[in-house]
Amino acid sequence: MTEMIHDEDVRSARLLDAQDKAVELFAAVQSRGLITPGATESGLSNAVRDLAAELFGVSRHWHKRIVRSGPNTLHPYRENPPDRVVRDDEILFFDFGPIFEEWEADFGRTFVLGQDPAKHRLRADLQVIWQAGRRYFEADPEITGERLFAHVRQLAEEAGWEFGGPHAGHLVGEFPHEKIAGDDIEYYIAPGSNKPMRRLDRSGRRCHWILEIHLVDREREIGGFFEELLDLGPGAGVLPAAASPS
Fold this sequence. Notes:
By secondary structure, the chain is an alpha+beta fold. Helices cover 31% and strands 17% of the residues. The strands form 3 sheets. Strands 6, 7, 8 and 9 form a 4-stranded antiparallel beta sheet that branches. It is globular.
């Protein structure tokens, strides 16, 4: 484990640097054409793992690597649906937690193969709702995880989707970050998390958060996922549009 750092400027810079590397990693996933029909979810997961090692020397991921496609995109993080082959005209998402020089990234993106308008709308709405969730967080200095979760779930429903997960994010930091135990709901953006999110952790340092949005349409059997740092970074609430694989 890295030495505990209390300088908040250093901590913020390290977390943002880890996220920047995750952005580069997924740009390379797309530019190298790894997402193709006929690939398996497990094969794509291994390909991203190998690419992270090649580009950045990453040898560890702080949580299980997730690639889900088609109906598997309905499943939240804790479930483990059977491995699946990616098909034409598919929606799929990636949720990875690479460790860059002992600092965690937690990064999720959705990709669409083909031109299905419902899948493209879902992918676009992920970013719209994420941005709206960040603006809501920024506007309320005393916001709790419970209130933020209720807001993003409402936004999902207003856009015609179901919110697919039991929470909408969690703490993040050096590896391993503040231990998240099953009964420590205050470490999540979730119902029952009623402490102010802007607070200090048990070591007296500022809490940093990941916001994650999981939208699903159970009738169409499609889902999508988007996550990154909630409380850090310039231009908060302004994210680039995600590109689809060609």
